[in-house]
Amino acid sequence: MTADMPLRQGVSLHLDRTTFRYGEVGFAFDVEFPTGEITAVMGPSGSGKSTLLNLVAGFETPRSGRVLIGGKDFSDASPSERPVSMVFQENNLFAHLDVFRNVGLGISPSLALTAADHAAIADALARTGLAGKDKRLPRELSGGERQRVALARALVRDRPVLLLDEPFASLGPALREDMLDLVAAVQTERKMTTLFVTHQPRDARRIAAHVVFLESGTVAASGRAGDFFSASGPAAFQRYAGAADEG
Amino acid sequence: MAQRDEQIGTTANPLSQAAHPAALRDRRVGAGMAALAFVAILIGGAFLGLAIESAGDFSGAATALDSYLFRIVRFTLWQALLSTCLSVVPALFVARALARHPGFFGRNFILQLFAVPLALPAIVAALGVLALYGRAGYFASFLTKIAGEDWPGIYGLSGILVAHVFFNLPLCVRLFLEALQTVPADQWRLASQLGMGVRPAFRFIEWPALKQALPGVAGLVFMLCITSFTIVLILGGGPRATTLEVAIYQALRFDFDPARAVALTLLQVLLTFAVVALLSGLGANTTAETGLSVARRRYLSIGGGETVLNALLIMLALLFVAGPMMATIAAGLQSDLVRLIGEPAVHRATTTSAALAFLSALLATALSLSLVMARHGLAGRRGRTSGRSLLEYATDTGAGFVLVVPPIVIGAGWFLLLRHVGSAFAIAPVMVVAVNATMAMPFALRAIRPAYDAASERHERLCAQLGITGWARLRLIDWPVLQRPLATAFAFAMALSLGDLGVIALFGSDSLQTLPYLLLARMGSYRTADAAGLALLLGLVCFALILLADRLGKERSP
Asked: What residues of B are in the A interface, CB distance below 8 Å?
């Protein structure tokens, strides 16, 4: 499946002066994400990380402004029409369907799969370290394996934007690093424009090239990860990271 | 792969400017609209028929507004109020007693027994009450001794109240117990650590939980009692104890005065809406769940005196609820069951009942599923931020309001509308199925909704993202999760339809007899033993269906 794939360029992702309200809380994002690279989206609870991802994925519709993907306006498109895959913190899988079918739904929402699709699914499962587990039900998998299934599905879906909403928050440190390396490898191969929400500066530093830091519903700072995590990084981020380390 | 990229490209063109393009294509919403349209046409058509019929002659409507009507309204409200109080207040304490003694001997059996009246045919219960407290009932000689004069039998207000409490007390107990079991175990741990006694624990823990459920439960019971038909028809016994619902029936069946029936129906609908509005102002949610969770361990030590008192309370409630059921069984066994089962009339009625109930249960389940799915489709469409639309309300709480419309009015309306077209009695089976399905729908809805809600919580975003919609979604995602709840809803709806004496009371004839109708006919011709035997048979079938529904409901997949 990977052999005949052309070299990926990634796709641009731009929240163009988008605003959104959730009850009393207002959000305003005007940010362009680096094409074909991983951007860590960080910030305190309630700062709008998940809202930002939901706007890109289409689970929320902006009040004003545009969601531009590859230069095209997707503001009103339904989630399935967008060139986006998202991995949630939990509930990524249908509990009554086995691993194979959970991945297969990424290719065909009615599970009408061709022989080529079967091969692609087997490939994706092998790629994510799930070979031989295709007949397992989600409850027979560990937390890490379940998220691997979600990644395998993102692989077969093959959409140019990947959104990761704290997908490894409930995993232990060693397992988390394995998963991060898997994400990094997959991303390098497919050049997906990737947003990665995390609370852990260490995770961000491990795989992200860029950081976008949110505060009170808007982008407070952004830049290259190397600059961000150095002593001369943005003051707001320093305060947050310091507090996070203490907590 | 290239083809798929192509797809992404083509879908990226500027989408239609319709407000919610994604939701409009959601077939779940379409299914819900179809279900709502079905109900609207069913009810609307009936009112149209009545309106056309009464348009020529309003004298009936005018004469309806007399002092007799005033008495009926007063009695309707009065019996509903008394029934509600007598059901709700004792239920508070019985539920509390059951909650405080999770290890009470036979607790599960008691709770299962308390689930039975909800789907037991009203006519069976009415007969059970009569077999126990009637003039020739099992308690008659005992009651004669106490009263010092011949026991006149339990008719009129007292009979209606006993039967209503028999139906609603167990329902209230289950709903209140449910409310008490929502109290987190940690609160009980805290209470025992703080050394809370019986009174403070009631005041700070139990009462707040009960108080929250109270308006909803009371509202539900009040609505069920205000529209009660069979009980009042059989136990009311005369013009002094007549409710609006029975007066509507009499206006149609005996006086054939559609204008009067329309006036009475509108009055009943207005009254019920007023009461429900009043209660929802108090924070009532009339869509209470009737599920049952397992008892959790409590950390409270309970004194010996309270234990005795609680045990006494539970036993009294048990005796009150089990009494009419036992009487039904005892009276039924005394009848000539073998001959009864061999009778061709009984055969025909049984076959008719089974076929009609099966079809209406099927329809009720389909209607409920459509509404539940549409509700989520609509909720997904508006996002979390805006308020609910009227349409969404109709798929949710609004659906419960069909209970306000008297089934016989729907039947009568269509009868009048179609009698110019052809033989009106030919539509009788269709009417019975359609109306019974609609009336069972709010209950079926309650069996399906929690499961669909829970599944939807997990699946909604995933399905949206992967584009799993329509038939594929039903087949791959919803059906596997909903099989059991749907079966529960089906069994329950079938029990309700089997025992119904609404439309059939109006449409029943020698050519179309259901078991409840046959039972009523035997009662009318004073073949009491036959009636008792039929009541036993009907009760047993419904009991089996309830057990099935309960079992299916409990073994929910993890």
From this structure: 1, 4, 8, 11-12, 14-15, 21-22, 383-385, 457-459, 461-462, 464-469, 471-473, 475-477, 480-481, 557-558
**pLDDT of residue B518 exceeding 50:** yes
Give me the residues of chain A with pLDDT under 50, please.
1-7, 245-247
Closest CA to B114 of B138, B144, B149, B90: B90
The answer to whether B43 touches B405, Cβ cutoff 8 Å, is yes
What's the rounded mean pLDDT across residues B101-119? 84
B300 band by pLDDT with thresholds 50, 70 and 90: low
CB contacts under 8 A, A 191-220 vs B, are none
* Cβ contact A111–B8 (<8 Å): no
Query: Positive or negative CA dihedral for A198, A203, A205, A207?
Result: negative
- Encode pLDDT of A134-163 as tens digits: 999 998 999 889 999 999 999 998 899 999
Contact A102/A153 with Cβ under 8 angstroms? yes
Nearest Cα residue to A192 out of A8, A2, A3, A69? A8
Residue whose token pair is 């539900």: B220
Tokens of A50: 């998940």
Nearest CA to CA, how far is A111 from chain B (Å)?
8
Side-chain-side CA neighbours of residue B231 (13 Å): 30
Q: Do residues B545 and B492 make contact, with C-beta atoms less than 8 angstroms apart? A: yes
Pairwise CA distance, residues B469 & B478, whole Å: 10
Which structure tokens are listed for A235?
């003051």
Computed from CA positions of residues B8, B14, B19, B21, in that sequence, does the dihedral angle turn out positive or negative?
Answer: negative
Contact B375, B395 (CB under 8 A): yes
Please indicate whether residue B338 or residue B302 has the higher confidence score (pLDDT): B338
What is the distance in angstroms between the Cα of A30 and the nearest Cα belonging to chain B? 21
- pLDDT at res. B60: 57
Pairing outcome for strands A161-165 and A13-22: unpaired
Token readout for B225 is 């009692």
Compute the distance between CA of residue B267 and CA of residue A27 in angstroms, rounded to an integer. Answer: 50
Secondary structure letter of residue A80 according to DSSP: G
Q: CA-CA-CA-CA torsion for B173, B174, B180, B181, nearest 10 degrees? A: 150
**Model pLDDT for residues B13-50, shown as the tens digit of each residue:** 333 333 344 444 567 788 888 888 888 888 888 888 87
**Of B407, B403, B410, B404, nearest to B49 (Cα)?**
B410
pLDDT-derived band at B484 (thresholds 50, 70, 90) equals confident
Are the Cβ atoms of A110 and B1 closer than 8 angstroms?
no
Name the residue facing B480 among A23, A96, A105 (closest C-beta): A96
Q: Do B464 and A95 touch (CB under 8 A)?
A: no
Q: How far apart are CA B222 and CA B216, in angstroms?
A: 10
DSSP for B377-395, written as a single string: HHHHHHTTTSPPPHHHHHH
Q: Which residues contact B376 (CB under 8 A, 6 or more apart)?
A: B28, B452, B453, B456, B460
